[in-house]
Amino acid sequence: MRTPATSPFPVPILPPIRSNMNQNRDRGNMGRGRWQSGLLPRPGGPFNQRQNFGFGSKFSHQNGRNDERFVSDMRLTKSEETLSRKSIAFQEPCELACYSRVEGGEVHFNDRSLRLFKRHVCDEVGADLNEGFETFIEKNDSDQQGFGDLLGCIRDKQIPLQNIHFVTFRNNLNKILATAYIRHEPWEMGVHKRNGVIYLDVHKLPERPQSELDRRRCYWGYSFESVATESSGFDGDGLRHINANVEYCSVIKTKLGAHRIIMGAEMDCCDTMDDGKRFYVELKTSREVLDNRTEERFERQKLLKFWIQSFLAGVPFIVIGFRDDHGRLVRTERLRTKDITHRVKMKNYWQGGVCLAFADEVLCWLYGTVKENEDYILQFVAPFNRLELLQGPSCPDTITHHVEQLKAP
């Protein structure tokens, strides 16, 4: 969000940047709004499969697979240099609606669960993020319930889907953009085309059983969100009580390349400018950066994911709570989303334009391959050299119900 020239962004709005890391503070034109970095040639008319564009054959013997469900693949053959020469337009994200889930699971199509950012969060340094762990209510992994809430909000607010190509949660787009650089993390998602719209629903892959330390580390993130927001997460006795199922979600419209997208994006909290205009703030936790090796890992991987998540939804600021190995908050750092790419570009770690160009190729391939009223699974698995599109078992009830409701008079 832009601050009026006559009213500069006041220092007390967010905590001052506190970092021991070397940062490149050069400013550029990357951030919210329409951003160009070259042009990816795209076909006219129908998206027909083309030779030498990374598409697989019906039988994928080249990679040692012979899955009867196989439909198509996109081999990851484009180099970073090739992708960096492409320029993909990204339209400024526009919020269309929002919804809230409250204690007990009830959903309201308003902002009642939106939290307010604590401007003096740096005063919380030293807080024990373990507090409240014993009463923590973990997130319900019912993916379809969450997607159904997003679709219900679209219907309730009568958001038109004409000329929309994809409806998804931001998390699915996060995975696609990150795959331009992170090639060792498997993922999959459902792909369902109805009335010209491709619905991407979230799939969770099986995970190894979590230890108590794993659960604590996950909790530290929720705990920092509680610490960094006003009057949230505490019961009547002043003890921290966190329910991960209470959330606020923004429904956003944007455009990546030629494809118009509506996505749901969970937001941590918000703040306001002097003129009362609201903006969102992303809250993150990370292990303290202690040496050059951990700094490089942080900037190569974590900052990449932080940037993707905030950039896609037009979130202008990220506040990171750095903690030690015991869950103690040791410092906070504020980042402008638009500055992150310049910080890492000088070190040649990754480029935002490459992520966008890669995602554009994926969306072009998907929209040109999937057929109306058919269901698929898009997956990225070992040996991590291609994306695979497989025939899916069926369409989730939430999407079927949504399509039927749209047809109802």
TrEMBL record:
Presence of the UniProt keyword Metal-binding in the record: yes
Principal location: nucleus
Gene Ontology biological process: NAD-cap decapping; nuclear-transcribed mRNA catabolic process
GO molecular function: metal ion binding; mRNA 5'-diphosphatase activity; nuclease activity; nucleotide binding; RNA binding
GO cellular component term, pick one: cytosol
Keywords: Hydrolase, Metal-binding, Nuclease, Nucleotide-binding, Nucleus, RNA-binding
Cofactor: a divalent metal cation
Domain RAI1-like: 91-391
Pfam family, one: RAI1
EC number: 3.6.1.-
Location relative to the cell: Nucleus
UniProt enzyme class: hydrolase
UniProt feature, compositional bias: Polar residues: 48-63
Region (Disordered): 1-68
PANTHER family with a match to the protein in the record: DECAPPING AND EXORIBONUCLEASE PROTEIN, DOM-3 RELATED
Protein role: Decapping enzyme for NAD-capped RNAs: specifically hydrolyzes the nicotinamide adenine dinucleotide (NAD) cap from a subset of RNAs by removing the entire NAD moiety from the 5'-end of an NAD-capped RNA.
Family statement drawn from the similarity comment of this UniProt entry: Belongs to the DXO/Dom3Z family.
Protein name, per record: Decapping nuclease
Organism name: Acorus gramineus (Dwarf sweet flag)
